[in-house]
Amino acid sequence: MSIASDTITEKSGYKLHVVRTDKYKTNTLVLKMKAPLTKEDVTYRALLPYVLQSNTSKYPTTPELRSYLDDLYGAGFYVDVAKKGEYQIISFTIDIVNEKFLSDSTPLLEKAFGLLSEVIFNPKKNGEAFDSKTVSNEIRSLKQRIQSISDDKMRYSATRLVEEMCKNEPYALEASGNLQDLETITPESLFAYYKKMLSEDEIDLYVIGDIDESEVEALADKYVSLQERKPVRLPRETGKAVEKEKEIIENSDVKQGKLNIGYRTQVAYGDPDYYALQLFNGIFGGFSHSKLFINVREKASLAYYAASRLESHKGLLMVMAGIENANYKQALDIIHAQMKEMKQGNFSDEELTQTKAVVKNQLLETIDVSRGLVEILYHNVISGQDISLDEWFAKTERTTKEEIIAVGQKIQLDTIYFLTEAEVQG
Asked: Which one, of 80, 117, 73, lies nearest residue 95 by Cα?
């Protein structure tokens, strides 16, 4: 029996994904809109979902919209903007109680579809422009979110690593947009982009819960109306060879140095050796039993935190460590040594077995919530693959030590970024 899978139906202008499961007490609708990351569009896309969620033609103020959600037994409604590989993805999510658990017969699933349709297709507008007060409020809020990145030094240093490492690549763009372009957006220009997005984006609608597939399809046909399109598909990203390693040292008012290191792996989600790369990362720095955690943080006491993560659709492996400013060279040497150990296969069968178990548990924890399940399933949309969770688990379990060593040979150091208080000696 499959752990979780979606039944996919091609509709006019979008794909409908239905996951029938009694695992959750709520029904969840997630609409995802995907387009390539571009400098011209990134800030429009960062702003737009927040304008749409503020109000609609039917619910012209935010309190009225939120009051309606309360009337639907406290339904949840969220928007999100993210980047996956070199795509920027906008998500609209509605969580609503499954009406089977209620004593009355309120058609809550249909009301969720109706609300999603209202938010997406019936915004509060003035002719061919969004409501100007709504736009100015959301510009102010987005400006604060962008500025807050530089206040959070951990996030700032991770962002700066990507900017330096992926210079002249779309992935260098921050999904929350930039301040310069934000200043130029008007209610008219945002509305023009909104129409373009609705007609060109690759759109996927996920409906998850203890639901009837034919009812869901009928509701989708009733409430979601889109024109046919041919979404832009980027060439598959498998990484690029490193021509020259970069070291960037930046000074700032920080008590704790932030060391971020970026590697090119030449492997992306869907590649045959992706499962080996995931295990490589887990043993190297992904979990609390990893080499980075034990050797940099525990044994040498050099780091407040030390970990690594993958960007699965861009083929990057990133290390993050918070260290005393004076420990830069020593921490760097130990991190390099752990990478060398991994590439030489100096890890035990016990470490491999433990990492396989933790990878599996992490995936199971992710799908414990319906939105997490959508994120797992959506990997296939981004990558153009068709990989089930069962296949993911099976291939992870079958991965050998030799395959992990082999994938390690592809990994190349690209950029070292260090945010520090003072000039680094040496």
From this structure: 73
| Dist CA 368 CA 231 (whole Å) | 31
Confidence of residue 426 (pLDDT cuts 50, 70, 90): very low
292-316: pLDDT as tens digits: 988 877 676 776 888 999 999 999 9
Backbone angles phi, psi at 306, to 5 degrees: -155, 120
Backbone angles phi, psi at 198, to 5 degrees: -65, -30
Angle at 408 between CA 405 and CA 414, to 5 degrees: 165
Q: How far is it, in rounded angstroms, from Cα 370 to Cα 354?
A: 26
Q: Which two tokens stand for residue 355?
A: 């990492």
Sheet holding 202-209, edge to edge: 7-11, 14-20, 202-209, 26-36, 87-97, 76-84
**Element of type H or E holding 17:** strand 14-20
Query: Angle at the Cα of 416 (from 410 to 421), degrees rounded to 5?
Result: 160
User: Is 317:413 a contact under the CB 8 Å cutoff?
Assistant: no
Output the average pLDDT for the chain: 93
Residues 6+ apart with CB under 8 A from 249: 418, 420, 424
Amino acid at 230: K
Residues in the chain: 426
Q: Is the dihedral of CA 301, 154, 39, 191 positive or negative?
A: positive
* Sequence-distant (≥ 6) Cβ neighbours of residue 178 within 8 angstroms: 42, 43, 146
3-state secondary structure of 31: strand
Residue 4 burial (10 A CB sphere; 0-12, 13-18, 19+): middle
The helix/strand/coil state of 250 is strand
Q: Dump pLDDT digits (tens) for 372-381.
A: 999 999 999 9
As given in the structure block, the two tokens for residue 197 are: 């997005």
Our CA angle for 333, 338, 343, nearest 5°, is 125
